[in-house]
Amino acid sequence: MYKTLSILSLLLFATASANAADHAVSVGGNGLTFSPNNLPIHKGDTVTFHNAGGFHNVASDTGLFRNGSASSSGWTYTTPAFNEIGTFGYHCEIHGAAGGVGMAGTITVQDYGPPPDFGLAAQSSSPSLAQGGSVADTITITPANGFSDNVTFSASGLPNGVSASFAAGGAATSVLTLTASATAATGTANITVTGTSGSLSHSLPLSLTVTAAAPAFAIGPGITGSWYLPAQSGHGFNLEVLKGPNQDNGFLAFWYVYDNSGNNLWLVGQGSYVGDTATLQMQQGSGGMFPPNFDKNKIARTNWGTLTLKFTDCNNATAQWDPIIPAYPSGSMNLVRLSAVSNLACP
């Protein structure tokens, strides 16, 4: 039983010592006083007295400590640790007396308890985002020992092109938003979120991964082929991406459709493309005859309107048309690929 109590006492003493603090008291200087002259401390703490000016010393009322004879030097004296609970008076032997008469003060020793503190936790310890994107991660503040102060946040170790911002997400959370520019450095980086409240500071490591932005689809020769809307099978497009001298970014479209009277209507358009979109000026022809009676000089070509084709991938696109002929309304529809050219890869 004795050994158990001894071990417990040692553990309690070690805990108190690990949390012990030193407190400063100024002696004299601007008057015959100790500053502060009423000092609360915790069990296990020490007090350091410093002579700020004048002919003084410091002595406990009950003989617990004494720095020596009075002196006008800038002396400094640190008491032994206070390991008993209670109030202890002290005084200058030249200008005060035991019991708080004249230049005197008190030290009140309280039972040592853990100070207020906080911890940090992340919703995700390994957030990920793509170039040009952003991601949010919730940082939770866990109070301990009655902690209730505000916590401010910062982030360090961010890759080039990545920025961080914090916004309150509630009484005990903060939302970290990480934003990557279109040219942000890719890869995995160890970043640190730091929460600070007064003299308290805690760090939270995160592993941030920045991936390359998904490339936007770009029109290429593999787009060439037949396209249509399955729900309206019976009309559709032949599309050609032009290659050859002076044909860079050239695009040709044939729309085999019907006019408002039910007659065949062939619309032919030529234009150019940028990225995933081709813009074409469409024309309709008339005046032709079946061979051998065909005469090219009798062909009349009329501007019909504009056709815009926007591709999301190699097999899906949107067609939008804007006629200039009043008889035809504007509209749009989704297209899927019906056929492709052999050995012409897409993308």
Would you kindly provide a written description of the structure presented here, covering whatever features stand out?
The protein has one helix at 2-18; strands spanning 22-28, 34-35, 38-42, 46-53, 59-60, 76-78, 86-97, 101-110, 117-122, 128-130, 134-144, 152-156, 162-170, 173-180, 187-197, 200-211, 225-228, 236-242, 250-258, 264-274, 277-286, 300-311, 316-323, 331-340. It contains 1 helix and 24 strands. It starts with a helix and ends in a 7-residue tail after the last strand. The chain is mainly beta. It has an 8-stranded antiparallel β-barrel with strand order 17-18-19-20-21-22-23-24. It is rod-shaped and about 135 Å long. The longest helix has 17 residues, at 2-18. The chain folds into 3 domains: 2-110, Cupredoxins -  blue copper proteins (Immunoglobulin-like, Sandwich), CATH 2.60.40; 117-211, Immunoglobulin-like; 221-340, Beta Barrel (Porin). Strand 13 (162-170) and strand 14 form a beta hairpin.
